[in-house]
């Protein structure tokens, strides 16, 4: 049984899921995208939907989540804690949040305090500045996650391929070693 996988995962073979409710989807090129209804978050990976959760927020969205929509958003953040990879991707910089030059009742102190509080509860915060940079970051992050999972899977398939095979003479082949079951004697070598 040969289960050889390509050595390298090509970015064009990675499928990113974009929640159907996402209003302004990110450009995740060169990765492929597909609309999906995600339980939590805006972006994930096909096959890793319960492993990866990225929530994207523009600055205006973020201010709404700090203010009037806080209860709803915090319930979403608590759901995100179930994901090993959970990221709040903000289309703003820390400097912009700190300056607080927006038309909202939310103060810069409230916005910064909320971001710090969410980070303290275990949500990774990434403030990227612009929508375009958010797409670049998300694409690279999603590809890196897919590539690492692919390497794990490749190792798993390699282990299956290397699984000891019993021979007619009663020995078990383990890569380049022979182990005789009755004597537990190792023959062969490096």
The count of DSSP E runs of length 2 or more, i.e. the number of strands, is 10
Cα shape: elongated
End-to-end distance, in Å? 24 Å
Helical fraction equals 25-40%
Structural class: alpha/beta
Instruction: Report the C-alpha radius of gyration, rounded.
Output: 24 Å
| DSSP strand content | 15-25%
Reported for the largest beta sheet, the result is: 4 strands, antiparallel
Secondary-structure element order, N to C? EEEEHHEHHEHEEEE
State the strand order across the main sheet: 7-8-9-10
Average pLDDT works out at 86
Determine the number of helices (DSSP H or I, runs of at least 4 residues). Answer: 5
Q: Uncertain regions: pLDDT < 50 for 5+ in a row?
A: 176-190
Key phrases:
24% strand, disordered C terminus, 190 residues, alpha/beta, 10 strands, elongated, three-stranded mixed β-sheet
Structure description:
The protein contains five helices and ten strands, in the order E-E-E-E-H-H-E-H-H-E-H-E-E-E-E. The protein has helices at 59-66, 70-80, 94-99, 108-120, 131-161; strands at residues 15-19, 32-36, 43-45, 52-58, 85-91, 124-127, 165-166, 171-174, 177-180, 185-188. Strand 8 (171-174) and strand 9 form a beta hairpin. Residues 176-190 have low confidence and may be disordered.
